[in-house]
Specification:
It contains seven helices and 27 strands. 17% of the residues lie in helices and 36% in strands. Residues 226-350 form the NlpC/P60 domain.
């Protein structure tokens, strides 16, 4: 891939430029792909967005780079480098646009684009009003303050399960509490910060961060469950080699038996409070097929002449993380041989 093509692909995936109406043009603004004389402020739902470059004026249309604007409005983006087509999907709306053309497709219907998309200063440009309104948002230009205000159509799709703090940063220790969100409150998830935090917006347009642990909200997604599965296994690895002791107390970490280990990992990582013994742990969550396992699922086996007497965590790639042996302590092991023969059921608890 040439240097120019690589740069083009990078910026197209990361940035999109938008336009406001022609009446946004003011005296002192230059024409064409030149920077404006006066700075323009851009707000999405009253939160200021900082463009990577200065706004431009193209034939009376103000263009600004607004990286991540689609995601903040709840849309998902894909880019086809060969055809130079950007696709944005939000709910039941799919917008498809080929850079440089005067027509876009919204759910299969052709719609005119007054100012065609283009590449300028290494950024992809598409019209703000057209894109935003297609996604259900509204755009306003405030002449006296040179401000663009975008109000997104937000679907408050997630419910708070248990009272939780809305924090200023994704950090329970350092982030200040902005508000207490009570059980039943509806929120919109802007993005998944990591396995443990979500950036969200409340119905009164306040933004902040809440815990992604499953006891606090009903939000879930394939990407979040993958991150949380990774977090569980990473935490469990900290105890590799920890000695096995049948009946080990769950109040300490110097020794484990199979179920106290699993209980500790889930409690410390995701605040999932599992029962103490494997037989009772096998009653939690929902049953999943052995052919549908994902990282973090619990696997149960016969042991000690009990129908269920052992538990392990599925670690992906046909590996399990568990403890049962004084010689090995906590360790990884292939999910095969005796474990396949002794397998009883799998349960998913997040």
């Amino acid at each position: 891939m040439t240097k120019s093509k690589a740069a083009l692909l990078m910026v197209l995936m990361g940035s999109l430029l938008y336009s406001v109406p022609t009446h946004a043009e003011t005296a002192g603004q230059t024409q064409g792909a030149q920077g404006t004389a006066n700075p323009v402020s851009i707000f999405l739902d009253d939160r200021q967005l900082l463009p990577e470059i200065q706004p431009l004026n193209v034939n009376g249309t103000l263009l600004v780079p607004m990286r991540g604007i689609f995601e903040n409005q709840g849309a998902k983006l894909t880019w086809n480098h060969a055809s130079k087509i950007v696709t944005a999907t939000k709910g039941n709306t799919t917008l498809i646009y080929r850079i440089g053309e005067h027509t876009a497709s919204i759910n299969g219907q052709a719609m005119p684009v007054d100012v065609p998309g283009q590449i300028a200063d290494g950024y992809t440009m598409v019209p703000l009003r057209f894109i935003s309104e297609s996604l259900g948002s509204t755009v306003k230009w405030e002449e006296n303050t040179k401000t663009v205000r975008i109000a997104s159509a937000v679907n408050y799709e997630t419910s708070i399960r248990q009272d939780v703090n809305l924090r200023s940063t994704p950090d329970s220790a350092a982030g200040a509490s902005l508000a207490m969100l009570q059980a039943g409150t509806k929120i919109h998830v802007i993005r998944e910060v990591n396995a443990l935090w979500l950036e969200v917006q409340t119905e009164n347009r306040q933004t902040g961060y809440v815990s992604a642990k499953p006891k606090y909200t009903d939000y879930t997604s394939p990407s979040l469950t993958e991150k949380q599965g990774d977090a569980l296994i990473a935490y469990g690895q900290k105890y590799l080699g920890t000695p096995y002791l049948f009946g080990a107390s769950s109040d300490q970490t110097s020794t484990f038996d199979c179920s106290s280990f699993v209980k500790r990992v889930f409690q410390d990582t995701l605040s999932v409070d599992l029962p103490r013994v494997s037989y009772d742990q096998a009653k939690v969550g929902k049953e999943v097929s052995i052919n549908d396992l994902r990282k973090g699922d619990l696997l149960f086996f016969t042991a000690r002449k009990l129908d269920i007497g052992h538990v392990a965590i599925y670690a992906g790639n046909n590996q399990i993380l568990h403890t049962y042996s004084k010689e090995q302590g906590v360790h990884f092991e292939p999910f095969e041989g005796q474990w396949r023969k002794r397998f009883v059921t799998a349960r998913r608890v997040f």
